[in-house]
Amino acid sequence: MLRIESFGSTDVGLLRTHNEDCFDVNDKFQVYVVADGMGGHNHGEIASQIAVESIHDFIVSSMDNDGTLPIGYDSSLHQHSNHLKRSIHTAHDQVLDAIREDGALLGMGTTVVGAMHKERVVAIAHVGDSRGYRLRDGHLELLTQDHTWVNEQVVAGYLSEEQAKSHPLKNVVTRALGGDSDIVVDVTETEARGGDLFLLCSDGLTTMLSDEEIHERLVAEASLDEIGLRLIRDANARGGFDNVTVVLFKMHTDEGANGQSLPAEATAGQQT
Q1: Is pLDDT above 80 for 191?
Q2: Which region holds residue 73: left if phi is over 0, alpha if psi is between -120 and 50, else beta?
Q3: CB atoms < 10 A from the CB of 60, how many?
Q4: Is pLDDT larger for residue 222 or for residue 156?
Q5: Average of per-residue pLDDT values in the chain
Q6: Does residue 174 carry a pLDDT above 80?
Q7: How many CB atoms lie within 10 A of CB 43?
Q8: For the packed helices 211-218 and 224-237, what is the interaxial angle rounded to 10 degrees?
Q9: Among the listed residues 102, 125, 129, 148, the one whose alpha carbon sits nearest the alpha carbon of residue 37
Q10: For a FRET experiment, which of 27, 150, 204, 255 has its CA 20 to 30 Å from that of 128?
Q11: Element (H, E) at 125
């Protein structure tokens, strides 16, 4: 059996006046979400909160579903992966509905990355440039691919990774909840093993710290809350240009447990 230890925290950073990030840590359903709102004047904060709450509500209300979700069921994915994917589509619809109801919210949106574990399979689903990583046996692997204009140019071979780091359009996302009327959600499935450590984060972390620096902190002999708070503290030490949110969850092999997860360090959050 695998049990989960988790941690989540968000920080406004040093330059922003309010926090547009939102996160959820739900050990009961083993679902973890980070959303990074966009739009300014509190609009991004509204979008990210709608997304996180919508994903939570959908997962909770559909856990007893027999697997035949009404729209867009992908038979190549596990049932819980489909639930996570559909929850993000539902969140997108909720953000659009909010914009239709209040014209002042026009232009708001949010990126999102979510993870869900069941039966030793972790599903990672995302839209935008919030990221998901896995640390296994000391090796850090990026499980998501940024939906940004610059990353698309790198993939196409028009820009090098070094050029991308300093490109003036590096923060332009090509997918976000609340954007186009339809949204494409990327889903990756990975086997869960004892000792695996997963990181979900907003780009407030990854624009301040390199993957090598993130790896260095994740492999430290420290508790999850110490690791998570150090990541946030070090992002701020580099300038804290953006809100930064970190969610960590670690798989523990525990044959004596009855599949019960450890209490979360934080259950849900949005810090202003």
Answers
A1: yes
A2: beta
A3: 14
A4: 222
A5: 89
A6: yes
A7: 23
A8: 150
A9: 129
A10: 27
A11: strand 121-127
Interacting residues of 64 by C-beta distance below 8 A, sequence separation 6+: none
Residue range 36-66, pLDDT digits in tens: 999 866 799 999 999 999 999 999 988 776 5
The yes-or-no verdict on residue 261 having pLDDT over 70 is no
Query: In sequence order, which residues have a C-beta less than 8 Å from that of residue 67 and are 6 or more positions away?
Result: 73, 79, 82
Q: State which H helix or E strand residue 269 sits in.
A: strand 268-269
Q: With contact defined as beta carbons under 8 Å apart, do 15 and 241 qualify?
A: yes
DSSP state of 80: H
Calpha distance 142→193 (Å, rounded): 17
Instruction: Please report, for the chain, how many H helices and E strands are present, in that order.
Output: 7, 11
Token readout for 134 is: 């896995």
Q: Taking residues 24-34, report their average pLDDT.
A: 97
Lookup: tokens for 128: 């935008």
pLDDT attached to residue 91: 97
C-alpha 236/C-alpha 171 separation (Å) is 18
Q: Where are the alpha helices (DSSP H) in 31-78?
A: 43-62
- Strand partners for 112: 35, 127
The answer to whether residue 71 scores a pLDDT higher than 70 is no
140: its two tokens: 């850090």
Phi, psi (degrees; rounded to nearest 5) at 156: -80, -10
